[in-house]
Input
Amino acid sequence: MSKNQINKYVWLVETLYKAKRITLKEINRKWLETDLSEGLEIPRRTFDNWKKAVEEMFGLVIMCDKRDGDRYYIENREVLEDDGLQRWLLNTMSVNNTLLENKSLSGRILLESIPSGQDFLATVMEAMKKSKVIEISHRSYWREHERTFRVAPYCVKLFKQRWYMVGNSVNENRIRIFSLDRVLDIHQTEEPFKYPDDFSPEVYFDGYFGVIHDETLDKETVVLKATREQANYLRSLPLHSTQEEIERNDEYSLFTLQIRPTFDFQQQILWNVDGLEVMEPLWLRKQIAGMVKSMWNLYKGGKK
Output
């Protein structure tokens, strides 16, 4: 199947999802506004074929309501709303479509570079699918020399534009997290492994902010005080899925999170130190205060 054809299916899904209910005539009106159309409408038979393809590819059922003026709609919208991976894939493809349709604006579209870890992602996922051990050469930021690991890959996670792999280090017989942008070489072996029945990626990262996994920290209620401006950012892009706003006024808002306050979470607080204040727990408040004091000591004696 051509990439261009997949882009058409994604466009149809996105159009139906946004419109909720829409006629084929209205779909074609929007279709003709895109470069993908090449000035041609979608014939009825082609549209029916696209509907079938969308159901097979994304598991989405497109129905037509005769009583509502032959309007089409996605019957099982919850697939997009509840399935994070499915929604992420469609969003990514949709952005790709938008960029392809606006190549003439390439000099006015600024993108962030992504570390090279994605180059190894396909190999990791293939090994996950085939349940094969992979061998990697890895060099962390904390070691001068690279190390070789044989790993049974369990899952992958994207965090702050970096891909991470969680897997069992075979020789050590313990779970490790590897940043793929620190991998120097990788290859799939013929050694099989069995994905453990008692391992769940969601459970493994339950209560964590990013990719640091520290079981010595308990999940607890963190209360953050956000300035009025910072609160707007937290409402539009929550720090964590458990985030709740419990108080709001003209000057600040209070948010709670049920989280394990690992180092990467603390770094996120420091990133927004002028707009966020830790109220609870007390130990975390003191920890952040200590970091801020160290920053002050670092800068107070510097050049003016």
About this structure: The chain has three domains: 3-102, 116-204, 220-299. DSSP finds ten helices and twelve strands in the chain. The domain at 220-299 is CATH 3.30.70 (Alpha-Beta Plaits).
